[in-house]
Write a structure and sequence with these properties.
The chain has 386 residues and is mainly alpha-helical. Among the domains are: 92 residues, Tetratricopeptide repeat domain (Serine Threonine Protein Phosphatase 5, Tetratricopeptide repeat, Alpha Horseshoe); 105 residues, Serine Threonine Protein Phosphatase 5, Tetratricopeptide repeat (Alpha Horseshoe), CATH 1.25.40. It is 73% helix and 2% strand. The protein is built from 20 helices and 3 strands. Bound molecules: zinc ion (ZN).
């Protein structure tokens, strides 16, 4: 194809157009960058160099110079709360709440953030007031969850029950297990002030919320025992096996004591032997071991421990066995005594309850973890740890 003269003219024109377009673009970028405060780039630079503290100070500077940067304010507020700098988080969110140029949604968001700051700072009354203002609208579900958290912290069980009911109506995952505990807490308070009728009512409500509530069965038995009706107490605790057998170790000693008070120790022992055959547990065995020791003496206790050791070997059962061996005089030699002492110290050091959710360890059993506040997250059987 022959190259025509006008083609030679078109080429420089294209170059000129490209150059002009690039200049326009660069001018635009320059204008934009002049609009962004220098502190912004300084902040970015610090972030890229992994100096978060300096980056935050630079972004705070941007926020001061340009109060319109709403998202930056929210980001900084959330960051301060996460870092535990609650004074600064509260100041930022309070300023946002007081601004008159915010849309309704933005104001709700600022209120929700501020409420979370107050909650984290332990200012429960102020957090509660704000979450109540957010009970309807875009943050309703989260506000109700936080309100529930506050009422549980404050041990305001009536309010907790009411909020749990509302959460369930809004389609939140089942609150039944926790709800039963709120009723049990109310029952416990009633028992402390000797209001038997109220305690019975709360325990019935606990079982209404959760048919398998191990705690409601335990407390019902405790209530009957307090009233001197050991037969009724035993009947209640005996329901545990069908309802929630994992919790048998928690009521095993109560069962033995009630049987002993009725002069029916042997019946109690046989009941526990049956439980143990169906649900192996070192804690359950330990209770049975002491019941046998009390009713039948060291030799029988030793025979029981030897049997269990074959069936279910473990350090805690060995501890019971060696204790019986050294105590009954049958094998009181020095080596056995030394072994018993060593195993006993090791068991005392290693065996404790542990929360499945947060790893909190305790010598004592808790229905609610003292560290993460979850209910029934601590299994009712002590574990042997390294
Ligand atoms: Zn926990």
């Amino acid at each position: 194809m022959e190259l025509e003269t006008w083609h030679l003219l078109v080429l420089p024109l294209f170059f000129a157009l490209g150059w002009a377009a690039a200049r326009v673009d660069i001018r635009h970028v320059m204008r934009e960058s002049r609009a962004v405060p220098a502190s912004y780039f300084k902040g970015l630079n610090y972030l890229l160099n992994e100096q978060p503290d300096k980056a935050i100070e630079a972004f705070v500077e941007v926020a001061k110079l340009d109060p319109d940067t709403l998202e930056l304010h929210f980001a900084l507020g959330a960051l301060f709360r996460r870092r535990g700098e609650l004074d600064r988080a509260i100041r930022i969110h309070q300023n946002l709440v007081e601004r008159s140029d915010l849309t309704q949604d933005q104001r709700m968001k600022a209120l929700y953030e501020l409420a979370q700051d107050f909650l984290k700072a332990g200012l429960l009354d102020r957090a509660e007031d704000l979450f109540k203002r957010l009970e309807t609208g875009m943050h309703a579900l989260d506000a109700l969850r936080h309100l529930l958290e506050i009422y549980v912290l404050e041990k305001d069980w009536d309010q907790a029950i009411s909020i749990a009911g509302r959460l369930e109506k809004l389609g939140c995952p089942s609150q039944h297990a926790d709800l039963a505990h709120y009723h049990c807490e109310l029952a416990l308070n009633a028992m402390l002030r000797k209001d038997v009728a109220a305690a019975r009512q709360y325990l019935a409500e606990a079982r209404g919320a959760n048919r398998k509530s191990a705690r409601a069965l335990q407390l019902l038995g405790d209530l009957e025992a307090q009233l001197g009706d050991d037969a009724a107490a035993i009947a209640s605790w005996r329901e545990m096996e069908a309802a929630n057998p994992a919790y048998l170790p928690i009521i095993a000693d109560r069962l033995c004591q009630a049987h002993a008070r009725l002069g029916r120790s042997e019946e109690g022992i046989e009941l526990l032997r049956g439980y143990l055959a169906r649900h192996a547990s070192a804690d359950l065995f330990h209770t049975l071991f002491h019941a046998v020791l009390q009713a039948r003496g060291w030799q029988e206790a030793e025979r029981l421990a030897a049997e269990e050791l074959k069936r279910n070997p473990g350090l805690r059962i060995l501890d019971d066995y060696l204790q019986a061996r050294t105590a009954d005089g049958a094998d009181g030699d020095l080596e056995t005594r030394l072994a018993q002492d060593l195993v006993h110290k090791q068991v005392s050091r290693m065996a404790y309850y542990q929360c499945n959710d947060c790893g909190f360890k305790a010598r004592q059993f808790f229905w609610q973890c003292p560290a993460c506040a979850h209910w029934e997250s601590i299994p009712p059987e002590r574990r042997e740890h390294e």
